Amino acid sequence: MASILDPPILTKVAKMKERVCWQHPAFLARHIDQTRLILEDGRSDDPAFSFLVIGDSGSGPHPDHHPQRRIAEQMLPHLQDCRFLLHTGDVVYQVGSSEQYPENFIKPYREWLVGGDRPERVAFDEMLFRFPFLAVPGNHDYYNLPRLYSILVQLTQPIRKLLGINLNPNVGWRGSGVGDTYARAFLDYLKALSDDQLEAHLDRHYGLWDENSRGLRYRPGQFTRLPNRYYTFRYGGIDFFALDSSTFNDPAPSPQRSTKGDHRQRLATQRAAVQRHLQQVQAEALRLQRHAPHAQERLDDLQAKVEQLEEMLLDIEKQSQPKPTALVDTEQLLWLRDGLIASWQDKAVRGRILFFHHPPYVTEATKWDQGQTLAIRQNLRWVLDQVAAAIPDIGPQRPPVNLVLNGHAHCFEYLKTEDTGHADSHMNCLVCGGSGLSLRRQRPEGTMLYESLGADLDGQTEFKLVAKSQLYVGLTGHKVERQRPYSFVRIDVTGDEVPQFVVTPYLSDRSHEDWEDYALDPLVLS
Description:
By secondary structure, the chain is of the alpha/beta class. It contains twelve helices and 18 strands.
């Protein structure tokens, strides 16, 4: 029985449109752009500013430690001089359930919330942020939970405890409702309003973006909703584009008939290997003695491995499903294309940053060659190539965006693309997915990412170097010697006409059941 269900892309898109009353006549009459966010903190014109980035955090407490809360505590001093926080997705694990928001989000980030001194009184769908918390949805924020599976998990908890079964799925009774919980927690959720209520709401919370359009006003401590699952805002002359990558990550269809059989056989071999590994992990968990030294940390590792392997099986299943074409949220991609072109044509803009969940480039062991990773890369290239074709200033050494921020891979990583043959050449990419959930290793193949160019005249496969990992921070060591460096990132933006981005990774390293907090040397990106 499947433990999680990932809804179809078209279902995700349709449900999210309903929740924000997408293109309702009341929006059109007021010239409201439902992707515009106005961050009203009185300082958005400052050319020099700082912000924080986290991702893949919503794990909740472990029996003997709490990585997510540890990272939150290390960020607190930075709230004094940083302006906002970007979250790259997977806000609450395992399936974005409302019942897990109190422990997995509200309590860990209580200082961000109005009324956070009494977190038990803060409802997940009534959160008001005193410090701007700007999120995008991750795949786990969309997952559904099969009803029969959830019932079995809950009803068998006493039996598993009695039998000494140590692995306990991190789920409750409910799933995300195709992202409904995320929408109620963060978006301007409007579908329950009457027409009169909607009119009053729009008049109160939407203001001028420019002379031609209006956007949603984000006022810390007063109103802190996001306009849509993807959106844009401008701060300090930098245009930020927040994307929902869970609706353009569908793996490409199977290859042509001549290679389809080989492709299916490769997937079948991968599936069998992952299933064998899963059985081995479950068997080790059964043998584990709870009172043995370091037993809890080992159990945490095994539980994380189970979740990792189940996610790999889900990706294999996505690739195995027969389909003529990949489903793609073309509307969002065209919005990004047009927004980037308009940004480049606006002399008030100094730079551009994208942030979304699934990374197009990464060397984490389980994500680097997933079908979803390659799909994100191809769809992003499709957009950026069109932007470059429309903007003469974009060239081989000047990519369309200054910085791409992602999560999904549970690590911190800085990568720089090579000459890819596309407009994403020589681009800075940061993966910020190590902020609370189990960390993962870098792939054993190393730091270089290659793409296949097909076979040459002699039938040998040719490869092209497309990216290099410059810095990777993730799981290292084995068993009791393991080091778990959880992370958040501070980015300081200079006030120059051509801005620089000073990236400082901050680590909370858990090893031998103890913590060490420190910062790495800053990376200066331009």
